[in-house]
């Protein structure tokens, strides 16, 4: 056992941690504080001098770059963050015990005791695992963007405008990401080591042999961040992917993941704010767009409140405040929050585009097509994430204008729709799902006498689960229903064409959603069922069938008809393949299935309890 004060003093019971570790953590907390007050460059400048020597400085520096990449989804930002995170990982490796936690704790022979790790070594383990986890997260950025994120003025080059690297650079990036994604699914060694290390560290924290050191809150916060992130992410994956991962040793428990992140968020540690951000992303994006729309909004507000009080002008927290108002259906309040977010900082200028994307949808919910068009136009001119998507949205909004409305800039929706396919970003043979959807919908405009899409803006609103937003406000729902009903009447009066059945079924789906939220349950069910009845007549929009089954199942679940709902969900999952936005639909089916099964189990337990009494 080492002597107190010696550099090899044992952790956690054998001696005093090195003061440099405590000092480094304090400095990194200061840097995060600068970051959260929109002083992005200052935070990086504060950290940079020690990034080559301190693993926490290096990790924090790389984490801020990764946050930038997550906000911008720009390939250059992703590469920059990835390279810096790799350097941080190498630095952590130098501070790790020669026999790592994963190797040591997993070995059945000559297993070292806990006391053989110094505090620096045990912190190096959690930092190393975090580097691996964050590098894995970067692999998801290109394909999972929510559509509003773009490249801001780069931290390292304030004059940099929105630009994307040339083709080869994009291809190399995508290939790198694709390989990392495959390695993640197949149990690639880096992600697997991160997962295993977090599992062992979690066991360590709960062990009766474990003694808390001076910097224990920061260490424990790191463990909770990693364990929570892994469990929560894995638990959300569709069953077919989850089975592959379980086969190679991964598993995820949603409740345990949420608990770990909530405990991490409530502590006072270097990782507390990261736990908060992950939870806010989960509550305001993942469960909303990829789930059933049932969001624990009270928990999101509880998480956000102390940070919004502490950082009233913090752009990140103002953005989440806007998202919460959107989900609550308070559209005017959401608009004010997003506008306030744009005013709060100018350094990451194009971070505003995240707000523009949200503002575009806010005005869509209100049926204010000119304002929606305005933000789609801004995005199409300033944003390099997906020109095809933004031009499609411009065309979609123009097509919603009335005959008497003046169309700005002399734009014509037919020409805009025709331009969409040429703007596709094809990277290593792959396209963004939203772009694929927009391109498929635009194809009908290539004929000399094109047949217009009935309500393209309202269709895309469904793709982003916007009906769960307007459903909170009957007035908004009535307004959208009126537009859909008029479109339905026009289809009935118009001549039959090759798109007639597809368009009629689309209108039925959207109408059913409005009726559901207005409490007209029977009418909603009839509309959803009519789509399945026309399944064999649909020529192009095959995504309508599984989504109609999904929406019908959700409607039945609200009536406690969970067994019927589960059968419909199983049919939607098993019987339909290769349709638009399939992965997103599968995520929603998975969330609905888990919810229905949970309700059935709770009902069974209640019956047993009643009988026992």
Descriptive report:
- Belongs to the TTC39 family.
- TPR repeats lie at residues 315-348, 505-538, 546-579.
- With 613 residues, the chain is mainly α.
- It has a domain at 8-144.
- It is built from 29 helices and no strands.
- It has helices spanning 19-36, 40-47, 55-72, 75-95, 101-106, 119-138, 141-144, 167-185, 189-206, 216-236, 239-247, 254-266, 272-289, 297-310, 315-328, 331-344, 352-365, 369-382, 387-400, 413-419, 433-442, 456-463, 467-470, 474-493, 500-517, 521-533, 544-558, 562-574, 582-612.
- α24 runs antiparallel to α25.
Fold topology:
Blueprint: H1 19-36, H2 40-47, H3 55-72, H4 75-95, H5 101-106, H6 119-138, H7 141-144, H8 167-185, H9 189-206, H10 216-236, H11 239-247, H12 254-266, H13 272-289, H14 297-310, H15 315-328, H16 331-344, H17 352-365, H18 369-382, H19 387-400, H20 413-419, H21 433-442, H22 456-463, H23 467-470, H24 474-493, H25 500-517, H26 521-533, H27 544-558, H28 562-574, H29 582-612
Helix pairs in contact: 1-2, 1-3, 2-3, 3-4, 3-6, 4-6, 6-9, 6-10, 9-10, 10-12, 10-13, 12-13, 13-14, 13-15, 14-15, 15-16, 16-17, 17-18, 18-19, 19-20, 24-25, 25-26, 25-27, 26-27, 27-28, 27-29, 28-29
């Amino acid at each position: 056992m080492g002597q107190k004060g010696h550099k090899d003093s044992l952790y956690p019971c054998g001696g005093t941690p090195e003061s440099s570790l405590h000092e480094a953590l304090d400095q990194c907390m200061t840097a995060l504080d600068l970051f959260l007050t929109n002083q992005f460059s200052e935070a990086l400048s504060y950290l940079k001098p020690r990034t080559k020597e301190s693993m926490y400085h290096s990790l924090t520096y790389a984490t801020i770059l990764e946050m930038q990449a997550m906000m911008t989804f720009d390939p250059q930002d992703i590469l920059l963050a990835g390279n810096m995170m790799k350097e941080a990982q190498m630095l952590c490796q130098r501070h790790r015990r020669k026999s790592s936690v994963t190797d040591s704790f997993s070995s059945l022979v000559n297993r070292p005791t806990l006391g053989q790790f110094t505090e620096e070594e045990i912190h190096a383990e959690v930092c190393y695992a975090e580097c691996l986890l964050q590098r894995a997260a970067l692999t998801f950025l290109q394909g999972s963007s929510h559509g509003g994120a773009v490249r801001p003025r780069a931290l390292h080059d304030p004059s940099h405008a929105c630009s994307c690297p040339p083709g080869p650079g994009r291809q190399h990036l995508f290939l790198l990401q694709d390989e990392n994604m495959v390695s993640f699914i197949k149990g690639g060694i880096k992600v697997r080591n991160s997962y295993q290390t977090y599992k062992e560290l979690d066991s360590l924290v709960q062990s009766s042999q474990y003694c808390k050191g001076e910097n224990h809150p920061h260490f424990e916060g790191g463990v909770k961040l990693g364990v929570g992130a892994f469990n929560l992410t894995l638990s959300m994956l569709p069953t077919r992917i989850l089975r592959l991962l379980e086969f190679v040793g991964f598993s995820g428990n949603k409740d345990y993941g949420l608990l770990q992140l909530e405990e991490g968020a409530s502590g006072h540690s270097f990782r507390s704010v990261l736990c908060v951000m992950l939870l806010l992303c989960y509550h305001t994006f993942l469960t909303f767009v990829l789930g059933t729309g049932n969001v624990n909004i009270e928990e999101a507000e509880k998480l956000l409140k102390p940070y919004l009080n502490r950082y009233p002008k913090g752009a990140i927290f103002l953005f989440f405040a806007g998202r919460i108002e959107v989900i609550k259906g308070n559209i005017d309040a959401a608009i004010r929050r997003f506008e306030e977010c744009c005013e709060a900082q100018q350094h990451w200028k194009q971070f505003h585009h995240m707000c523009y994307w949200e503002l575009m949808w806010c005005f869509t919910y209100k049926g204010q097509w000119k304002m929606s068009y305005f933000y789609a136009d801004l995005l199409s001119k300033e944003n390099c994430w997906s020109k095809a998507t933004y031009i499609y949205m411009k065309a979609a909004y123009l097509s919603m204008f009335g005959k008497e409305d003046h169309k700005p800039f002399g734009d014509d929706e037919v020409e805009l729709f025709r331009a969409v396919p040429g703007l596709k970003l094809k990277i290593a043979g792959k396209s963004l799902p939203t772009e694929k959807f927009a391109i498929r919908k635009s194809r009908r405009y290539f004929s000399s006498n094109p047949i217009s899409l009935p309500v393209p803006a309202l269709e895309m609103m469904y793709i982003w689960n916007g009906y769960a937003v307007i459903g909170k406000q009957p007035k908004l729902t009535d307004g959208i229903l009126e537009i859909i009903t008029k479109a339905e009447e026009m289809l009935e009066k118009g001549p039959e064409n090759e798109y007639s059945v597809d368009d009629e079924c689309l209108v039925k789906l959207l109408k059913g959603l409005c009726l559901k939220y207005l409490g007209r349950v029977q009418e909603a069910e009839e509309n959803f069922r009519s789509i399945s009845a026309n399944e064999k007549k649909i020529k192009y929009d095959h995504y309508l069938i599984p989504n109609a089954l999904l929406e019908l199942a959700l409607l039945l679940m609200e009536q406690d008809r969970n067994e019927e709902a589960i059968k419909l969900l199983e049919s939607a999952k098993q019987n339909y393949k290769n349709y638009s936005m399939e992965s997103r639909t599968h995520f929603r089916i998975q969330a609905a299935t888990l919810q229905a099964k949970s309700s059935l189990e709770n009902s069974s337990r209640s019956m047993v309890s009643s009988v026992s009494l």
